[in-house]
Amino acid sequence: MSNKSLFYRIRRRGQVAAYRLLGPEAVSKIYFRHELGYRLDLENPKTFNEKLQWLKLYYWPQDENAIRCADKYAVRSYIGSVGRPELLNELIGVWDRAKDIDWDALPEKFALKCNHGCGYNLICADKSKYDRGRVIRQFDKWMHEDFGEFNAEPHYDSIQKKIVCERFLEGEVINYNIYVFNGKVVFFSVAGGLGDGVGEHLTYYNADGTPAFFKNRNYPVRPGRLSDLLPQMRETAEYLSKGFPMVRVDLFDVGGRLMLSELTFTPGGGLIPFDSYEADKWLGDRLDISREMELINSKRSGRTGAAE
After folding, report:
1. What is the mean pLDDT of residues 77-92?
2. Domain assignment of residue 4, yes or no
3. Which domain holds residue 112?
4. Do 248 and 228 lie in a common domain?
């Protein structure tokens, strides 16, 4: 085991222990100060990351549709229910346990993933190169993890865990992460190489496709030609965002076909390292969560009144 992977495992165990001991609000404040360098204000959130944290802790765990759409399997039925089934990749199979996967019945190429978190993926371009037992053991491990405990994202706790297999996407696949605030696209990002340590880059754009003035501190910027599907992507993202104060709609351009990747309600766990506090604040000014805060506060007051 490499030092990097050992450190990763130790860190994950520490995150789980902290979550269980201190609770989601306390650990969120610790992570926030450590990662972003300023104190998390949950009483009067101003920056984009602060508002993400507030939604993450208090609103999304009570929003059944957000929980449903954060579920990488249940989101399929939601997309169908709002009349956009053409955005879905072909479903090959779904299982409750890793040992139930019929490896022999899988095609030579496929995408295998858990539905209850981020990073639980196997993109298989050649089944013969993978050891069946090792893959099953890896998915069995992932299925026993509570993803919500890592970055204090409690809405993941309500997801019924499943393993999903979808069709392998051939050719060039470009992922557009589109941030929608109060029903309108505000900005989007295009990235490449994330996680592989080679050629990593992430570039933010304004809704109209012009380069944004801000960047992510962790990645170099690499502007490039944008998809001809961008107008359709904006329309689709705004359509799918209905009913949510904020959602990141992740869409693929697969050789000129628009396809849904996922809906993300806590991008970066609410710890996106923008290149300045001013950029974080500028984005926060464009996200209005006053209605959601009033709703949650009224529920708290109701509970308090009932208790008294």
Report:
1. 98
2. no
3. 90-168
4. yes
- Choosing from 122, 152, 168, the residue where a domain stops is 168
The number of folded domains in the chain is 2
Could you read off the pLDDT of 246-293 as tens digits, one per residue?
999 999 999 999 999 999 999 999 999 999 999 999 999 999 999 999
pLDDT band at 198 (very low <50, low <70, confident <90, very high): low
Distance (Å, whole) CA 231 – CA 209:
10
Q: What is the DSSP string of 118-170?
A: SS-EEEES-GGGS-HHHHHHHHHHHHT--GGGTTT-GGGGGPPP-EEEEPPPP
* 236 in a structural domain: yes
- Give the H or E element holding residue 16: helix 3-22
Same domain for 123 and 266, yes or no, is no
E-strand stretches of 6-147: 91-95, 110-114, 121-124
Report whether 308 contacts 64 (CB < 8 A). no
Q: Are residues 214 and 180 in the same domain?
A: yes
- Answer whether 214's CB lies under 8 Å from 204's CB: yes
pLDDT of residue 304: 46
Cβ neighbours around 141 below 10 Å, total: 11
pTM: 0.94
Indicate whether 282 and 177 sit together in one domain.
yes
